[in-house]
Amino acid sequence: MTARLPGRLAAVAAGPAPLFVYGTLRFAAVLEVLLGRVPTGAPSAAVGWRAAALRGRCYPVLVPGSGRVDGLLLTDLAPDEWRVLDEFEDDFYDLIALTLTEGQRAYCYACPHAPGLELDGDWDAESFARRELPGFVAGCGQWRAEPG
């Protein structure tokens, strides 16, 4: 990446910056509707974190924990795709750097300091896929179609 990126994305502007996704962004249908394509991804995991369910929400938050979180490592995001994903994740999450199980450094949207969050156990990707994915994808399409 060589394009100038604003705010918290300035850290990823210096060169290729992989993104670790562990929740709704690990689903091809979500990436397709947000980005118009499915970026190159490989299975990966982060230790010392957990994907926690948020009470009343269908998406998770990555918080410190004693477990392992499986996800995908997206390795070919263009600057405009980073902008879309950053806007989608909004200020609720922090963009942090972490080390994955295979030693790779990557960025990730997480809540490393989560006081006040209403966590509701671990997030279940399979349950999300069965119950929520079609509606979530439709909502992503509506969000993407909004001006601004």
TrEMBL record:
Transmembrane segments: none
UniProt xrefs under CDD domains: GGCT_like
Protein name per Swiss-Prot or TrEMBL: Putative gamma-glutamylcyclotransferase
InterPro entries associated with the record: AIG2-like (IPR045038), AIG2-like_dom (IPR009288), GGCT-like (IPR013024), GGCT-like_sf (IPR036568)
Molecular-function GO term, any one: transferase activity
Pfam family, one: GGACT
Keywords carried by this UniProt record: Transferase
Presence of keyword Transferase: yes
Protein origin, superkingdom: Bacteria
Residues annotated as domain Gamma-glutamylcyclotransferase AIG2-like: 19-124
